[in-house]
Design a protein that fits this description.
Metallo-beta-lactamase, Chain A, binds zinc ion, 2 domains, about 425 residues, 10 helices, alpha+beta, 6-stranded mixed beta sheet
Length: about 425
């Protein structure tokens, strides 16, 4: 690898057909069109959707991937990630991310690049991208993390992204998930606060980058294990790869399994089981049999207990979930998958997000999910319109279909592709 932000992927040799990708600002009549191909070059075109006028920029002789871009709600900031080939005695893959101010779509990011310039950019990347980051770096700084004891030698790290389980044994540490790429050092520090043993294994609950974004940096020091579908999703780059952090380096797990896998370390067992589709096609639940604890990944999300004195919710039973249809998720299968999870022996739960929970919380979650799903199926089958489904999700369950970012996918937010896919699935 040449730099931390570089992709370790071959540049496709095939010439892609021309295609368009459009981003709309949520709160302004502004769109940005990415026209890619028939070569690998990309042209950005500003679209004033109020006047329906277009402001074409120049061709960009590098790849701006449509799954790796984002437009701020007011349409003034455009975040993008670039990958390009540069030749300097040998070919180099140049990669950087940046945010551009609207108005510089023409003059700034869509500029002519030649070989020398690419090399200059590569140097600039090494110099913290100073010359080319028009506004600011898009990479978020890592947030503070905390660690708490779950039971015995099992701890939970939280604070950003998904919850990380830390199981300490006499021969080393087993982690379940490793958060975002940016949290790597923070996780190492939190583990160090409870043990001097090295991290030996990481089990991924699924491939989203708030859970497995740290794999790339873990691979040199530990073995990463994931369900074969989770790895396949990464290999296919079925984007968005939960684009919280554009340009997250992808670390492919070296070990995969289909139904069940165990790690035995220091006389203890950590067992991962696959029960089917739900949040994605590759969600697994990880058990700590000696402790009767499971880590559910995003198949189950912990809920904060209501504040004392808070008025009782008037909403019908429901759940705030994200069904990642682009990566094999299924609303229809989710309940059945949870039935498999509930067949396990456990009393304590580390959810994908949220506080440490109990088995009864998973039972309630499954029940609310099933109630909501059945009601939505009834509405879809009776009315046959997507709008009715979306209206009910917004009015009765607090989901939002408007004003949602295209990326990252957000629980309770219906991205355009998600509402279409959800409607199609519920209608079947
Ligand atoms: Zn997820």
């Amino acid at each position: 690898m040449l730099c931390a932000g570089c992709y370790n992927r071959p540049v496709p040799s095939r010439i892609a057909p021309a295609r368009l990708h459009v981003l709309f600002a949520q709160e302004a009549p502004i769109g940005v069109i990415l026209r890619r191909g028939p070569t690998r070059q990309v042209r950005l075109i500003a679209w004033n959707t109020g006047t329906d006028t277009f402001d074409p920029g120049q061709w960009f002789k590098g790849q701006i991937h449509d799954w790796n871009v984002s437009l701020s709600p007011n349409g003034r900031l455009f975040a993008y990630s670039v990958i390009a080939l540069s030749y300097a005695g040998r070919y180099l893959i140049v990669s950087f991310t940046a945010v551009s101010r609207r108005g510089s779509v023409r003059q700034g990011i869509v500029c002519r690049m030649n070989r020398k310039f690419l090399l200059a950019i590569f140097v600039a990347v090494l110099l913290l991208q100073s010359a080319w980051v028009v506004y600011m770096q898009s990479a978020k700084p890592p947030g503070p993390l905390r660690i708490e004891k779950v039971k015995g030698d099992l701890y939970m790290i939280s604070g950003e992204g998904g919850n990380v389980a830390v199981y300490v044994t006499s021969e080393g540490v087993v982690l379940v998930d490793d958060m975002f790429d940016r949290n790597h050092d923070g996780i190492l520090a939190q583990v160090k606060s409870v043990t001097d043993k090295p991290i030996r294994y990481i089990l991924n609950t699924h491939q989203h980058d708030d859970h497995a974004g740290g794999d790339f940096k873990m691979l040199p020091i530990a073995e990463v294990i994931a369900h074969r579908n989770a790895r396949a999703n990464l290999v296919d780059i079925k984007q968005p790869y939960y684009e919280d952090t554009p340009g997250t380096p992808i670390g492919l797990p070296r070990v995969t399994f289909s139904d069940e896998a165990s790690v035995f370390l220091g006389g203890k067992e950590v067992r991962a089981k696959y029960f089917g589709r739900g949040h994605t096609s590759g969600d697994v639940v990880v058990m700590f049999p000696e402790l009767s604890v499971i880590h559910t990944g995003d198949l189950f999300l912990g809920r904060q207990a209501p504040r004392t004195g808070a008025p009782a919710s008037t909403r019908p039973p429901g759940v705030n979930i994200y069904v990642d249809y682009a990566q094999g998720g299924s609303f229809m299968d989710w309940t059945k998958t949870l039935d498999g999870v509930l067949s396990l022996q456990f009393d304590t739960v580390i959810p994908g997000h949220g506080p440490i929970s109990k088995k009864a919380d998973v039972v309630q979650f499954r029940s609310d999910l099933e109630t909501m799903r059945s009601r939505l199926i009834g509405i879809v089958k009776a009315s046959q319109t997507k709008d009715d489904m979306v209206n009910i999700l917004e009015s009765d369950y607090g989901w939002r279909a408007k004003g949602c970012p295209l990326t990252p996918p957000t629980a309770g937010c219906l991205q355009f592709q998600q509402s279409d896919a959800m409607f199609a699935e519920l209608k079947r």
